[in-house]
Amino acid sequence: xxxxxxxxxxxxxxxxxxxxxxxxxxxxxxxxxxxxxxxxxxxxxxxxxxxxxxxxxxxxxxxxxxxxxxxxxxxxxxxxxxxxxxxxxxxxxxxxxxxxxxxxxxxxxxxxxxxxxxxxxxxxxxxxxxxxxxxxxxxxxxxxxxxxxxxxxxxxxxxxxxxxxxxxxxxxxxxxxxxxxxxxxxxxxxxxxxxxxxxxxxxxxxxxx
Length: 209
Fold this sequence. Notes:
Layout: H1 3-20, H2 28-36, H3 39-55, E1 63-66, H4 72-80, E2 86-90, H5 93-102, E3 109-112, E4 127-130, H6 138-146, E5 153-159, H7 174-181, E6 190-197, E7 202-208
Parallel strand pairs: 1-2, 1-4, 2-3, 4-5
Antiparallel strand pairs: 5-7, 6-7
Helix pairs in contact: 1-2, 3-4
C-alpha cells in the first residue's frame, strides 16, 4: 500500500470514530475503510490496470468507474492514465466525502449516482470500469453494459465469493461471467478474460468492446 494512502486511511478512521461520539452512528465505516484498501482490493485492481496497459486502449475523452467506492480504482488508474479525466461514481454519499480525503491531489472527480437507476450520461467515456459486478443485479448490469459508448472499452470484475449477502451476482466460473457479459458488448469483442486466485475466492475479469 502507498504510505500516504495508509496514513490518510488511519486519519479517516480516527475521524469516523470521533464523529461517533457526537451522534453520527457510522462506526461500521471503520471496517469499510480498511476493506476498501486491503491487499486483495489492491491486488485485484492493480491487475486490471496492468492488463489495460498491455491492450493499448485509448480512454479519451475519459474513464468512468462505476461503483468506485472510496476511490482506489480511480487512484490506480490515475497512475497509468496521467492526463485523462477519471470520474469515480458511487450511490453512497459518503464515498465522495471519503474519496476526496483519501485520494486528494490525484485529480479524480467523485460523483454520487446509482448508475443503474439514474440518467447519468456515461456513454461519453472512452473506457468504462466496474470491479463490483457481484454487487449489481445481473439484469441491471447487462443494461449498464449495453448503454456504454459503442466504441468504448469496458473492464469488468466479479468473483465466486457467494458468502456475503451483498454479493447478489457472483459467478461460479470465469466462463459463466463471460457468457452473460459478451452478448451485451456492442462489438462482441473480448479483449481479455482471466481469473485471479486470491485464496478464499477467485476474481474474474473481462475486458471487451
